[in-house]
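All the exercises in this workshop are built on plain-text protein records. A record pairs a protein's sequence with a compact description of its fold. Read left to right, the backbone structure tokens trace the chain's path through space. Once this layout is familiar, the rest of the handout is easier to follow. Here is such a record, shown just as it appears in the course material:
>
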Amino acid sequence: MRGSRSRRVAVTVIVAVLVAATCVNLGLWQLRRLDERRALNATILAHGSAPPISIDGVRGNAAADEYRQAVARGTYDVEHEVLVYGRGLDGEAGHYVVTPLLLPDGGAILVVRGWVPFAMRSVPVRGAVPPADEVSVRGFFAPDEGDGSVSPDAGGIVRILDVRGIATSLPYDVFPLPLQLADQTPPQPGALPIPVPLPALSEGPHLSYAIQWFCFAVVALVGAVILLRRDRRAATGAP
């Protein structure tokens, strides 16, 4: 009996410590996510308040900061359009339409023209054809999500917005950051693609989730103490 009780105590302690440690780690991970979100908010506010820059060519990129406003003039190269697969908007699945905009110096910048529904999975996207003439695009620099290792497949589909990877399929130099469209002149002739807005300036649920995980850790430890006390009382016959 004594050996059996010792094993129960050991198992209870080990399980409680493991559960508590896991919960604490998950809480700390949520706090790290909160720090990342706050840093992103600060970057968007700082870069978004800077004056817009004009993109005339692929080499004038000294001020190309993520989320900074920018304008570019050129013509769309629809034949080299790609889709960034599996991107949601307002809870609906779809893709981002990314079309190179040919610049005056012969290079191009990748323009994230907007979102289309999931059923539209071939490029050029027929229901989202851009103006054929020269356009003026206003937007902000979106982050480059890749390291040059992800390129479009034979159907023009790419899993992440990897600028250098997409550039491997293009016959010209490409600006180092994509331009996420806010509006353009002349405007898009149809309802698609839908422009994608800046990330929301919020801290998200990370702090509340962290508090929940820390509470779960406390519950695991307190619950183990209660169980051990009950087991001890049962073993000694104490009331």
Observations:
- The helical segments are 2-48, 163-167, 206-236.
- The chain has a mean pLDDT of 86.
